[in-house]
Amino acid sequence: MVLLGSTGSIGVNTLDIAKRYGIEIEALVAGNNYRLLNAQIKKFKPEYVVVKDKKTAEKVDFKNVRWGEEAILEMLEKSKSPLVVNALVGDAGLRPTLKAQELNKKIALANKESLVNAGKFIDTSKITPIDSEHFGLWYLLRKREDFKKLYITASGGALRDWEIKDIQKAKLKDVLKHPNWSMGMKITIDSATMVNKLFELIEAKWLFNTTKIDAFIETKSIIHALAEFKDGSTTAHISKTDMKLPIAFALLEKVEDKILEPVNLLEIGSLEFRKIEKSRYPVWEIKDLLLEKSDLGVVINTANEYAIDKFLKNEIGFLDISRMILDAVKKFENIKINDINEIFEIKSEVRKWCESYSF
Question: What predicted TM-score, i.e. pTM, was given to this entire model?
């Protein structure tokens, strides 16, 4: 297989599963973590290696290392692997997903932005989601199509227990204190704003061909997804928060071995469910609009990445991230994307608007 994003948490867990089941690694693609990448090269002996930039490439122990987006796309062209695992972060994962689809490869997808930006142009029958919520829905819906409504859960992020009046004062160090686990910086911020869950709703729309999808907070992150059926019953997918389970299914298709320890519900005790309140998570205001007009995913993704960059530089406040996203949606609410190239044109237009935005 080809692994895009080998040094992130998804990539590391993917390599653990690949080693356990003897899956050959044809290519490794990584960002700037050359030390971990060098260890992976030594262990898995890939045929191709691509990194983010030339500076990183100079520190990689591989004779033909290449760098940049074009190098990833060219590597995909040359690769013989039928499976591509895309665990790249952000927009960097979009073109590789489109290229893998063009090459008729199966895609194990952990890159949210691919479906958020271009879901209408992607054949989801060739995609297996590597995401606890969408994997949970897939697991619940196997051989069943009689669902009435689908639900995914949210942790609530780092500020879920703060007084609402204090949220505007939150600093980066506060936003990065996720209550349930440790993740990358961007996704932790997205969890605190609830943008991450907006993205997952759009993904679910394309993956399961429905707008009957909603979310709520489950504070212990034990229940990942629920399916409500026409007969009045509701089933839940419960597992420990460990990405090895969805990764194993994505790589192997059929899993009969024990991947995780089962959840001990007696140890968990009680579970708490909360509504996602717009007063705490302002972006939730556009949830229904997004499901109706999913082309707006391009707008939200672009504005969000721009605003997060400003927040990381301490140039704007935490709530300014949500404000910029909501204002961007008002500005571009009526966009209509007719082909893949328009995605990149609209992203450029939204980016220019962001640069002129007055906070």
Answer: 0.91
